[in-house]
Amino acid sequence: MNIILCEDVKNLGRAGDALKVADGFGRNYLLPKKLALVATPANLKRLQQELNSKKGQTRRIQKDAEYQAEAIASQPLTMVTSVGEGGKLFGSVTTAEIEKELKKRGIEVDKRKISLEEPIKTVGSHLVEIKIHPEVTANLTVIVQGEEEKKATEKKEAEDKVAEEKKVETAEPNAEAETSVAEQPASTEEPAAD
Fold first, then answer.
1. Which residue ranges form the domains of the chain, and what is each CATH number?
2. Mean of the per-residue pLDDT values for the chain?
3. How much is the pTM?
């Protein structure tokens, strides 16, 4: 039986492929599930038109996925958890927790598309793959910190901010002195000749 696949079928072919399959397989599986059509000239023409419109949609979806992959990969994700001795976590960081943190950033990703061989159980930086589209994969850096490390980091950032503000305050009086000298009008009187 000659058929045309309407959708990708695993171990058989991709949408739009014209194939010869066993009669029973075509009649009992592919045709009832609308995975294929009988290869007639009319069906060939109709399927070609549908494939052309799907190609445009697929390109748009892939472009959107590429933009999303860039957004995911651009900033590392920092997760703060309880840590025991030796940098081992109490519990672990799972795909569900990564999905939840990404949602807080406004990035929607299904947790089944996040690839973790096993949950993260140590402190440090971990590279996680996210399969956004069949042809687009994003690499997300997940930084796992203990609660103590997070507090130390926040304290250092606060100290740096205060030091920066002091630098700005000390720089402002010098700037005012320069502007006040520049604002004084130049003397138009000529020196008196003796």
1. 2-55 (3.40.5.10), 71-149 (3.10.430.100)
2. 81
3. 0.54
